[in-house]
Amino acid sequence: MPKLTERKETSPIKMMVIGDSGTGKTGALESLVRAGYKLKIIDFDNGLDYLQQALSDVPELLDNIQYATFSNHFKTVNGRVIPKGTPKAWASSLKLLESGKIDDEDWGKPEEWDESTFLVLDSLTMASKAAMLQVLQVNGRLFEPAQIKDWGQAQGLVEGLIMWVCSEDIKCNVLILSHINFIEMQNGVMKGYPSSVGKALSTTLPRHFNTILNATVKGNGKSAQRIISPLPIQSIETKAAVPEEKLPEYWPIDTAYGEFMKLAKGSVPNPNWKPKKNSQPSGGKTLGIGSKS
Q1: 51 domain-assigned
Q2: Predicted confidence (pLDDT) at residue 21 exceeds the cutoff of 70
Q3: What pLDDT score was predicted for residue 8?
Q4: What is the pTM of this model?
Q5: Which pLDDT does position 283 carry in this prediction?
Q6: Are 291 and 89 in contact (CB under 8 A)?
Q7: Residue 240 pLDDT > 70
Q8: How far is it, in rounded angstroms, from Cα 43 to Cα 126?
Q9: Cα-Cα-Cα-Cα dihedral of 218, 199, 183, 219, to 10°?
Q10: Residue 11 domain-assigned (yes or no)
Q11: Could you write out the three-class secondary structure of the chain?
Q12: 1 in a domain, yes or no?
């Protein structure tokens, strides 16, 4: 039987970042690209606007980003908003992950990616909505309220995906971005969890990750700064694959993920990358690499 002293720390980072909309969860991907990582982004939010402008000083880095956007379409009928056609976003995203191919692009299968790559899901919140539409479509209740059975099946789809990407079969790093769902606990205290399908799943998902960071805003008005914190803030619990004494209180979003990976792994693929000093986050425009489905 092996001893813990003989175990090598070779496990990839399986990380979740939770935060309200606009706190910089997606924008912080900039630092991973600058640090030399390749990104494979499963995009349900159609919100990759930050990256092209953020990386405009080194446009060749955009070649290290592959993304596919998956979205369902809707229409209004008699005052109701209903799906337009058959919802395909969830099924199409899984087809890409299973085959490694979309349209004319060949990403390779996720099982073949190494630790120089991040599989990014942006965001879990919208992916969960797509999973629910998939269940309602299959169960013939697309235009009806979801039943208990539907909620259970959708939760199973989402948790199954998370269990797979966080398993030992996936050798690359994984980053799941999620909005926050505040849930009242039995003692009356409100706690923040990843937003997914129902409260039960939200409270169990964190156990699958070795790192959970919080995207938030520090300060107000023009002095406000978007930050990523590895330490608990108010009602949001965090954890990190780094001893707590080595963790700062927070990082600015444009260096956060890269700085965390340097702490967690001791180095990053780009040895010349250095975190900026006193960096400030900024807005962005449109990324133009990838596919839509």
Answers
A1: yes
A2: yes
A3: 55
A4: 0.89
A5: 34
A6: no
A7: yes
A8: 9
A9: 10
A10: no
A11: CCCHHHCCCCCCCEEEEEECCCCCCCCCHHHHHHCCCEEEEEECCCCCHHHHHHCCCCHHHHHHEEEEECCCCEEEECCEEEECCCCCHHHHHHHHHHHCEECCEECCCHHHCCCCEEEEEECHHHHHHHHHHHHHHHCCCCCCCCCHHHHHHHHHHHHHHHHHHCCCCCCCEEEEEECEEEEECCCCCEEEEECCCHHHHHHHHHHHCCEEEEEEEECCHHHCEEEEECCCECCECCECCCCHHHCCCCEECCCHHHHHHHHHHCCCCCCCCCCCCCCCCCCCCCCCCCEEC
A12: no
Token pair for 241: 């694959």
- Whether 55 shows a pLDDT value over 90: the answer reads no
The answer, yes or no, to whether the previous bond of 123 is cis (omega within 30 of 0) is: yes
How many structural domains are present in the chain? 1
Kindly tell me the burial class for residue 269, based on how many C-beta atoms sit within 10 Å of its own C-beta (0-12, 13-18, 19 or more).
Answer: middle
Residue 8 lies in a domain: no
Domain residue limits at 280: 18-292
- Residue 133 identity: L
Is residue 60 predicted with pLDDT exceeding 80?
yes
CA 263, CA 228: separation in Å to the nearest integer? 14
Q: Over the stretch 69-101, which tens digit does the pLDDT of each residue have?
A: 999 998 898 888 888 889 999 999 999 999 999
